[in-house]
Amino acid sequence: MRADVPLAKAYLLINHGPVTLVSSRSGECSNVMAAAWAMPLDFDPPKVLVVIDRTTFTRELVDRSGEFALNVPPRRLAATVVAVGSTSGRDGDKWSRCGVGMLPASRIAAPLVAGCVAWLECRVLDERPTERRYDLFIAEVVAAAADDRVFSDGRWHFADEADKTLHYVAGGQFFATGEPLLAGQRS
Amino acid sequence: MRADVPLAKAYLLINHGPVTLVSSRSGECSNVMAAAWAMPLDFDPPKVLVVIDRTTFTRELVDRSGEFALNVPPRRLAATVVAVGSTSGRDGDKWSRCGVGMLPASRIAAPLVAGCVAWLECRVLDERPTERRYDLFIAEVVAAAADDRVFSDGRWHFADEADKTLHYVAGGQFFATGEPLLAGQRS
Fold first, then answer.
1. I want to staple A139 with a disulfide (CB 3.0 to 4.6 A). Which of A17, A51, A122, B3 is the partner?
2. Which residues in chain B have their CB less than 8 angstroms from residue A177's CB?
């Protein structure tokens, strides 16, 4: 079940460095792409960074709308991550072509990706020089949610292998998120 | 054995989102801190992003020197990551206090962290507004190396559990890097 995550805990959804899917919409057009280069930038209010190449269709939609969602796919969607990461939304609707389902977001117009285990709804902050120079977007997280089978009370608890998040390497290669460990208390 | 990694492959050392240690030096002072918020920004020439809080001693050293290294610790250093992440170099030398060994870097003055499995030597690009506003540093990677027992020919090959890289959650909790999987070819 999709359950809201308090904004102050939103960073936990991507703190471990999982690959993400960036979903976006402008008017009638929506799209989804893969992004390994996304991370938290601040805790509360939560901010995130994501690199969105200037040649992508997603970039057009984000430039026009000022919004996107970061969706965190589980292992069972690995092939989908590769599919949406290796085709362009300019060549036809990726949602139907790649068999990706949409969910409505709560605070932004962009759709969320069905079957993901966490979702961060984001509004782009006005940092045009950084966008233009580095394709780097700085955004505020305005809503966050997770599948409460795998994340609740501020903690990940992967039971099923197929629910684990993914870490992207290159060329269709990933690592699944591995064994949890505790190494002393941070003060 | 520490072996050079070609600059065009340097992004692979942190593409999967591992936690990093940031090492720095200015004059006689050097320091090491933990940073989960680091990622690639570009392929070639390689660039990286890292968040370095304005209250840290590392920030002083990086502001003064314009250099730092990102070191990728393996699982056997998990307790060290927590130790250097929960104390300040202002309270005494962290290297000796936390039992962290130094290696000489090849292109920068900052020391590298011994026992890590990958190292990125970085020079800060002049993006002061981004640093001041977000504590976000944009840097070019000027040299890269890896322990060739776990990374060679552009591929990670973790054999030993203790060699696996780490993904930081919060409160001393990590995930080890998990099972590799291939999900089709990216074009």
1. A122
2. 167, 175, 178
